[in-house]
Amino acid sequence: GAGVSQSPSNKVTEKGKDVELRCDPISGHTALYWYRQRLGQGLEFLIYFQGNSAPDKSGLPSDRFSAERTGESVSTLTIQRTQQEDSAVYLCASSPARAGEQFFGPGTRLTVL
Amino acid sequence: QQQVKQSPQSLIVQKGGISIINCAYENTAFDYFPWYQQFPGKGPALLIAIRPDVSEKKEGRFTISFNKSAKQFSLHIMDSQPGDSATYFCAARDGGSQGNLIFGKGTKLSVKP
What we know:
By secondary structure, chain A is mainly β. Chain A contains no helices and ten strands. The model of chain A has no long low-confidence stretch (mean pLDDT 92). Chain B is 0% helix and 58% strand. The interface between A and B is medium-sized, with 27 and 26 residues.
């Protein structure tokens, strides 16, 4: 079956613009995570969705970051008024259950000029 | 505050040698310790994982050694091959959390032929 997919694979934007990143989880996976990976760094947790429960937004670095997920399907991560420090690879992972094994997508490389 | 400390940052090993990567943690609530392997341009993939009730887990050439009292765990890659060249991340999960992982900063492994 298909794995986690993310789009676009690369995004170059100008400082101050808004960007939207998309994640398609593995079908049937109830849990979905977003992480940020800065160059040479580990993965930094951003947000977690589990079914129809309220998302855990504790990792979002500022109010410029938001994410949505409809049911157990696609999720979008939106960054408003992008800054150069937002440049990173944004990774999405899905899991068949809370605290289950996480399967990662290939990521979206965001470059803010 | 870095909750999972990983070393070394980079590692060069000759083909056939043993690669050893170390991680240390502070939070005693962590109950799951996976290792991820990441190739350039790809998302991380689960390699092997351990829970704190065992001291060692082996899968093929990959072994995790876990020292609960010292709050340390390590990945050993036996008979390292050039195809093992990748970035390796240790991670930990808080048993009381929603399942999001806390990652080390990664180790870039190069296996020379």
